[in-house]
Amino acid sequence: MSATIQSSSSSAQKETVCHCQLPVRICTSKTKEHPGKKFRVCPNSLKPGKKCKYWEWDEEPVQQSLDAEIAAIKEDVSDLKKEVLELKKKKRGHRVHTSCNLL
Question: Which residues, in sequence order, are CB contacts of 22 under 8 Å at separation 6+?
Fold first, then answer.
């Protein structure tokens, strides 16, 4: 596996520990399938003879992106609801009453 190891003092990293109860390291994939994607591993995973099997993708940036997208969509929905209400008000104000007189 090819990876770049990154140290971070973020609270999220301090809270995440591996099966050895050590703070995990965030690494960056350099594979063709996942270039630049972050993942978390045990700090012992790269040491010969110490094989902690802890490994997971770091989904935090993805979640932040999704949260921002959801917030933008909610704002769009709110704006569209306001626009619909305004159009309904205009429609009510422009009703034309017609009557027919049959002889």
Answer: 42, 43, 44, 52
Length of the chain: 103
8 Å CB contact between 39 and 27: yes
CA 75 – CA 82 distance, rounded (Å): 11
Q: Terminus-to-terminus CA distance in the chain, angstroms? A: 92
Q: Which residues partner with 79 through β-bridges?
A: none
Backbone angles phi, psi at 38, to 5 degrees: -85, 145
Distance of alpha carbon 42 from alpha carbon 18, whole angstroms = 5
Mean pLDDT of 42-70: 78
Q: What pTM was estimated for this model as a whole?
A: 0.44
For residue 30, what pLDDT is reported? Answer: 93
> How many alpha carbons lie under 13 Å from residue 32 in its C-beta half-sphere?
0
β-pair partners for 39: 27, 57
